[in-house]
Amino acid sequence: MEGGARRRGRAVRHGRAAIWPALAVPAGAAGSTLTTAAAAQVAGRQSDLALQPVELTLRVALLLAAPCLGAVLAAVVIPRPSPQALYRLAVVGIGLGVPFGPVLVLRLDRVVEFGLVTTLLTLGVLAAWGLVGSVLAAGWWVRPSRWAERTELPERTELPEPEPPR
User: Fold this and answer.
1) Spans of all domains in the chain
2) Which of 28, 37, 49, 114 has a Cα at 20 to 30 A from 11?
3) DSSP 101
4) Which residues, 6+ apart, have CB-to-CB distance to 27 below 8 Å?
5) 74 with 109: CB under 8 angstroms?
6) Is the pLDDT of residue 158 over 80?
């Protein structure tokens, strides 16, 4: 009977761990949306070619780095799934969610109006954001300090009766 309970307990534990890859896509999207929105606010609405080259470069670099920081934010929020297969699914899920932030915040859906080449370049940048986001999330979880360790406590033993006061 006890062996069956252990097997059921293990299945439940793996079942609970299976939810994290499913939440990785929305977490990646939320993290990249948050950081991209913050970067867009910092960059300002008037980021055009009238800016000095250094200022324009800094603003563009901020907007390019923001979705990647969103992937790290998602990796911080989601605990690392313990089975290797679930870990890989969670990393891929974060990578799939990362491109949603720039699409929503920067309105990259309007790029189609500029032609095929611009659309293909934008899709390439979105794929790069997803790939880099996956690598950053995996790098965050690989560090040994991010792993939760579980120790088995010894069986409960009866304490000896206290001696009566003298």
Assistant:
1) 29-144
2) 28
3) H
4) 74, 77, 78, 93, 94, 97
5) no
6) no
Produce one character per residue of 46-62: b if its CB has 16 or more CB atoms within 10 Å, e if not.
eeeeeeeeeeeeebeeb
Q: Closest Cα partner for 75 from 44, 32, 12, 124?
A: 32
For residue 153, what are the CA distances in angstroms to 53, 156, 157? 61, 8, 11
Name the helix (H) or strand (E) containing 14: helix 2-17
User: What is the residue type of 126?
Assistant: L
Q: Which pair of structure tokens corresponds to residue 79?
A: 């605990």
At 8, the pLDDT band (50, 70, 90 cuts) reads very low
Q: Per residue in 76-134, pLDDT tens? A: 888 877 777 888 888 999 999 999 888 888 887 788 888 899 889 989 999 999 999 99
DSSP letter at 50 equals T
Are 24 and 89 spatial neighbours (Cβ–Cβ below 8 Å)?
Answer: yes
How far separated are the first and last CA of the chain, in Å rounded? 48
Torsion (CA) 71, 76, 80, 84 in degrees, nearest 10: 20
Q: Are 66 and 105 in contact (CB under 8 A)?
A: no
